Amino acid sequence: MILTDRDITDALAAGTLCIDPPPPADFYAPNGVDLRLDSRLTLYREPAPDEDPVIDPAGPGYTFREAITGMADDIEIGEEGFVLDPGRLVLGWTLERVDFGAGARLAARVEGKSSLARIGLIVHLTAPTIHAGSTGRIQLEIINLGPRPIRLRAGMKVCQLILEQTLGIPQRRYGGQFAGQRAAG
Q1: Is residue 91 classed as helix, strand or coil in its secondary structure?
Q2: Within a 10 A sphere around the Cβ of 84, how many other Cβ atoms?
């Protein structure tokens, strides 16, 4: 069952959901809440001439964190914003930290905003699930599939959180490779 704006504000008031900083009233849609882009981005580098450009996620010893560290750098979005060229992928973070309290019976999906998708900005297209018991900022995969460069600004509304009630309480909190993920920096 998808939560309405009223259900979301009730969950925040009851403490079963925490969004920090709290969203202002105009961030709510009938069944979701907008989240903003943090000031930090992770940018991919071109491979060095002597570097194997192939990523092998099923290969022995592969870890996501080591792969990203080996091929990307973190930057701060300045006052002028960051121009994302067509075809380029960057990793971003939500400004807001989201916490589903233990026993909250909540999970969520992160969805891009249609107003951004219509100009070619795809935000968190795959793996939208935020598991029950998750806590932290949400890492976003952001790609420009449009015909023109798009300026990203820290603090812009970039995605929406669609909250869902689970049928039960999980035996354990989310503990996968992205558990407790933090913004770079």
Answers
A1: strand
A2: 22
The torsion defined by the Cα of 70, 40, 157 and 159, in degrees rounded to 10, comes to 30
Question: Is 25 exposed, middle or buried, given 0-12, 13-18 or 19+ CB atoms closer than 10 A?
Answer: exposed
Going by C-alpha positions, the residue among 32, 37, 34, 26 that lies closest to residue 11 is 32
CA torsion angle 115 120 124 125 (round to 10): 110
Check if the beta carbon of residue 105 is closer than 8 Å to that of residue 166: yes
Is 79 among the residues known to form the active site?
no
pLDDT in tens, 25-68: 999 999 999 999 999 999 999 998 998 899 999 999 999 889 89
Tokens read off for 157: 């509304």
Q: Name the pairing type of β-strands 32-44 and 28-29.
A: antiparallel
Among 158, 165, 114, 116, smallest CA distance to 137 is for 158
- Of 46, 51, 141, 164, the catalytic one is 141
